[in-house]
Amino acid sequence: MNFPWLTVLIVWPLVAALATVLTGRGRSGATGGAGHARTVALGGSLVEVALAVGAFLAFDTARAGEHQLLETHQWIPSIGASYAVGVDGVALLLVGLSVGLVPLVILAAWKEQAGDHVRLRKYLAIVLVLQSFMVAVFAARDVFLFYVLFEAMLIPVYFLIGAFGQGAQRRYAAVKFLMFSLAGGLIMLLAVIGLYFQVPAADRGPQTFLTENLAGMDLGTTAGRLLFCGFFVAFAIKAPLVPVHTWLPNVAENSTPGTSTLLIAVLDKVGTFGMLTLCLPLFPEASRWAAPVIVVLGVISILYGAILAIGQSDLLRLIGYTSVSHFGFIILGIFTFTSMGTAGASFMMLNHGISTAALFLIAGFVIARHPERSQRIADYGGVRLTAPILGGTFLIAGLSTAALPGLANFVSELLLFLGVFSAVQWAAIVAVPVVVLAAVYVLLTYQRIFTGTVPAALAADGKIPDLDARERTVAGVLVAVMLLLGFVPGLGLRYVHAPAATTIEQVEVSDPPPVLGAASSDAAAALSTVGSKEVAL
User: Fold this and answer.
1) C-alpha angle 381/382/388, rounded to 5°?
2) Least trusted range by pLDDT, from 15-24, 107-116, 149-158, 344-353
3) Is 11 exposed, middle or buried (CB count within 10 Å of its CB: 0-12, 13-18, 19+)?
4) pLDDT bucket at 110, cuts 50 / 70 / 90
5) Distance (Å, rounded) from C-alpha 492 to C-alpha 350?
6) Which residues lie closer than 8 Å to 181 by C-beta, 6 or more apart?
7) How far apart are CA 88 and CA 211, in angstroms?
């Protein structure tokens, strides 16, 4: 019997969350047992990392386009819903991202809520519960199960923003996030119900909602397009895509850096992941029909997010807008229907998560050094003079976001551009200048915060402490991963090429012919095979 890797990965964080909540109960004083709660939470998250390593080892990369580590059990047979989990290469990478970031978030938040042990225990427990939902939603192979998890994730995120956020408008941001997400979830529920009734009564059974059973079903033009819109709107809100993105900057500004990391670096990928693994396979004709409009919205998101990021005065809000831009890239890559663009978009989901997590967490270290924890960029200056490691790691994270060669985002963005250019040339031409805009908002922010003179309000003696051992661990791990994926991208690419080819086949399209001649075609083909072979280290 195969070991149930995915179920254990889903259940273990819940066990760790319960242990964290119970740690220190009954101790006197608000801070009693705080260190124990942190240790239990961190230990639980590290065990989860070890389990994820086991799942990766059990996964056959030669069959990355197929779902593996499969488990299927009856859940609500009367409506055809099953507990069905399994991962292809893309899903496994996102599971790994979910698992790997949580211990870093716990370490980064080591001193948050430190004055109140009860709040600390609750905060850490909610983070672990959210980790369970993150793993489950990326592993779900049943549409109804996916929907339930899609909605259930809102509960821990709402409390992480509203109860543990650090901004003055955290409750407003939490409610805005919840209202947008619930609206999308309601539309998706109607689409799920509609999809069920499109299945002939004679074909309905205890596994009706399995994605492999629904894919390829003849829905008819009108029904298929309406159902596609129901799913896509929910995913566009989650992604987020302009014009349904407005909740994200508020959340980024008013949440803790750890919450923003989990929400924007991981959970928002549920939107693009859902487009890739549900919208395209279940509604191929509707996906092709809607693609021109979605491509336009993707390009608008790319430009809009980058331009607004340049003008932000709040550091965390700025990082939020950069993500609006990068999600536009991912959606553009998905809906141009090329194997190279889809592979680039899939790989970018991983790389964006790592780079954005680094930006948020290192920005949190910067903010923690201000006496009033100010997030205003204008309140800083000269930080690198006495904190060179802090300045250096922030710069590396920013340059990775801007797709500097040798860092994580570069290869994924290059693949994406090549795929988009071969299919929709105007979109690639319009989007390319954003590479320059990204360099502007990264370098301008670095200049304002880390160069110049130190304001007296920041440090009267001009000395700002550099990263301590705990903070260096967090930043060091993220920087190491960005460099590793930048110089050895095959470690990730071998998980995304086969799923990309499978997706394009499901949408019933083929890669367009070369547009720049044989030489460029050969170069692109060579690049697209990076990572399809095992990488010897």
Assistant:
1) 130
2) 107-116
3) middle
4) confident
5) 8
6) 154, 237, 238, 247
7) 13
CA 136: distance to chain centroid? 14
Q: Judge contact between 186 and 247, C-beta under 8 A.
A: no
- Helix-, strand-, coil-residue percentages of the chain, each rounded to 5: 70, 5, 25
Nearest to 450 by CA among 487, 410, 528, 397: 397
State how far the alpha carbon of 118 is from the alpha carbons of 38, 112, 308, 480, in Å.
12, 12, 38, 34
CB atoms closer than 10 angstroms to residue 76: 14
Predicted structure pTM score: 0.91
- For the chain, the structural domain boundaries read 290-537
What is the CB neighbour count within 10 angstroms for residue 433? 12
> Which among 394, 72, 33, 403 is positioned nearest to 213, based on CA atoms?
72
Band the pLDDT of 490: cuts 50, 70, 90: very high
Residue 389 vs residues 125, 219, 382, 467, 470: alpha-carbon distances, Å: 31, 57, 13, 7, 13
The two structure tokens encoding residue 384: 């690198």
Assign residue 534 a region: left if phi > 0, alpha if psi is -120 to 50, beta otherwise? beta
Select from 507, 478, 494 the least CA-distant residue to 100: 478
Hunting for tokens 């069920």 — which residue is that? 196
Q: Is the pLDDT of residue 283 over 50?
A: yes
The pair of structure tokens assigned to 149 is: 């998890």
CA 431 to chain centre: 21
Contacts of range 22-31, beta carbons closer than 8 Å, 24 or more positions apart? 23/121, 24/117, 24/121, 27/117, 29/117, 30/115, 30/116, 30/117, 30/118, 31/114, 31/115, 31/116, 31/117
∠ at Cα 139 (202, 348), nearest 5°? 125
